[in-house]
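Bumping my old thread because nobody answered last time. Still need a sequence for this structure:
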């Protein structure tokens, strides 16, 4: 039993201590999690080139992986055998300086990592290598590596990436994702150039500055900082009129732009290649900057606690933009889709959806839940390749019928949205990725609670009669985004709902409801104890659903249990469900 390893955990940060405990649990239960990679043995020694090069490639793949949190490599453990194995000469073999030296010889840039020599509660030592969530991707092989037999294991220029359980060479789409932040910086540079061009087109070389600045389209497609300063001035002075004027300018590209391009037309464009190019230019230079600017206005309204009508005006425009991205027949035509670099048919709607989600998650993050009242009740018909008239559903759910075949949603919608758009465009409003994901998880719990009741999972006769008579043809079906992290992050929202349901006031806040009429029919004539009983059933349902979903994905369920008063109502509910018990 190694003395240093036995003493090390006392000085570990809470983050690493949690990892240490999770490793213990996973090994003892024979489970796996995407965040942890286990190696029974590993070596960096020159005497074992096979292991050395395999480990370098393995670590490179993990560092290049599309992830939102830390990734951990555990050396000296095997969950399949539920055992820990001593790592020979671990302190010297996996020294931080040595590992950095070895990696920097083969990889550029150097991955960001930390090395910890820790031990289980029983004193079994193991090596924990923590790869930072934020990596300087893509990390590329810069030196060829040969095994003892002369076989090339690493080739200069290779970019290996870990996808699910496979270590594969990066494809074009993977590299595009890695460069997303740089692409966003280039987009900002284009915005500055667009603004300069618009100013050069002005008929007056040096127009006099009016005492009150009139909103201009250049604010929407120019540098984001100018838009922020202008919007902050409007919010500080309560100038809703100029705010709505600015939003009205965005309606040009967002609502009418597709028709101006003939994207819905039935006639074949004369020059397909030019048509595709025009669509791409419009999306890049007008539509996308306008969507991002409109969302920015909504985030600023939440940040500075403007009147709710300000955010409502923003959401009006975004919902109309979502509906306007329907029936874009030429984006779906094989004549266009076969053109190199063609715009995916679902992309415009996706960008609007990402912006709406960002606003909702930001309202949760800032604990300004009343702003959700402008978003949650908005209903739309989902967008699909055939644009078949389906039942309407809340736009905040997932109203885009599209399949992603490369595992983009394997970790959930929130990580995908963060990587694909939010981090680069509005990430500064949230800070660390973890804060965004935690706030998103709270929103997910609220949405799933709405879905649980709206689908009448309880089988309540009174609610069912209302649902049957409801002529609005609304779907409450929702697949929650809570299968990639434990439910600990949802607790603040879970506690908030507890406070509401335990109150003598039977009214559920309309701003937390997709359709408050569902809550009225369930809770209006019920006592607090009965409302909490219903809520406890939901909490049990959510935890069981998560465990079942993870098992179907061949993943071991999280270690999580509701605590405090949530645990109490869940325990009481579970006892009442046992055979022979009466409610």
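Sorry it took so long. Here it is:
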């Amino acid at each position: 039993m190694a003395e240093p390893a036995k003493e090390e955990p006392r000085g570990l940060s809470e983050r690493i201590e949690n990892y240490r405990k999770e490793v213990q649990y996973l090994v003892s239960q024979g489970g796996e999690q995407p965040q942890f990679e286990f190696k029974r043995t590993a070596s960096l020694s020159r005497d074992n080139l096979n292991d050395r090069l395999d480990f370098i490639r393995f670590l490179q793949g993990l560092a290049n992986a599309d992830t939102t949190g830390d990734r951990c490599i555990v050396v000296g453990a095997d969950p399949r055998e539920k055992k820990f194995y001593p790592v020979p000469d671990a302190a010297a073999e996996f020294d931080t300086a040595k590992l950095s030296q070895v990696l920097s010889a083969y990889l550029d840039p150097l991955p960001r990592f930390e090395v910890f020599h820790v031990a289980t509660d029983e004193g079994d030592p193991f090596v924990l290598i923590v790869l930072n969530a934020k990596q300087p991707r893509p990390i590329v092989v810069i030196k060829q590596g040969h095994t003892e037999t002369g076989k090339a294991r690493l080739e200069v220029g290779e970019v290996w990436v870990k996808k699910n359980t496979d270590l594969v060479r990066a494809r074009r789409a993977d590299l595009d994702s890695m460069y997303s932040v740089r692409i966003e910086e280039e987009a900002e540079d284009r915005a500055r150039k667009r603004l300069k061009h618009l100013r050069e087109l002005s008929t007056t070389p040096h127009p006099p500055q009016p005492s009150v600045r009139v909103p201009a389209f250049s604010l929407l497609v120019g540098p984001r900082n100018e838009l922020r300063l202008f919007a902050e001035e409007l919010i500080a002075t309560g100038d809703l009129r100029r705010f709505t004027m600015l939003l009205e300018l965005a309606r040009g590209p967002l609502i009418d732009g597709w028709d101006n391009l003939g994207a819905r037309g039935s006639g074949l464009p004369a020059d397909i290649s030019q048509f595709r190019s025009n669509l791409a230019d419009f999306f890049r230079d007008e539509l996308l900057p306008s969507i991002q600017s409109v969302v920015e206005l909504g985030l600023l309204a939440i940040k500075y606690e403007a009147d709710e009508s300000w955010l409502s005006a923003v959401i009006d425009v975004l919902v109309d933009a979502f509906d306007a991205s329907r029936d874009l027949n030429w984006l779906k035509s094989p004549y266009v889709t076969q053109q190199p670099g063609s715009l995916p048919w679902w992309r415009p709607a996706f960008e609007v959806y990402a912006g709406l989600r960002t606003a909702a998650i930001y309202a949760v993050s800032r604990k300004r839940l009343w702003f959700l009242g402008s978003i949650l009740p908005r209903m739309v018909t989902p967008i699909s390749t055939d644009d078949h008239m389906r039942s309407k559903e809340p736009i905040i759910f997932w109203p885009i019928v599209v399949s992603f075949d490369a595992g983009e949603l394997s970790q959930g919608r929130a990580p995908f949205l963060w990587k694909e758009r939010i981090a680069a465009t509005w990430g500064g409003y949230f800070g660390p990725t973890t804060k965004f994901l935690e706030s998103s998880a709270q929103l997910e719990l609220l949405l799933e609670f709405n879905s649980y009741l709206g689908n009448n999972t309880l089988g309540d006769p009174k609610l069912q009669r209302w649902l049957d008579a409801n002529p609005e043809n609304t779907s409450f079906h929702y697949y929650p985004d809570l299968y990639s992290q434990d439910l600990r992050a949802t607790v603040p929202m879970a506690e908030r709902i507890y406070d509401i349901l335990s109150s003598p006031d039977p009214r559920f806040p309309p701003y937390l409801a997709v359709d408050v009429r569902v809550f009225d029919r369930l809770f209006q004539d019920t006592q607090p104890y009965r409302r909490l009983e219903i809520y406890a059933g939901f909490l049990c349902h959510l935890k069981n659903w998560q465990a079942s979903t993870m098992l179907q994905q061949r993943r071991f369920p999280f270690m999580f249990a509701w605590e405090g008063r949530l645990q109490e109502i869940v325990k009481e509910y579970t006892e009442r469900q046992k055979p022979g018990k009466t409610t």
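The radius of gyration is 27 Å. Let me know if any region looks off to you.
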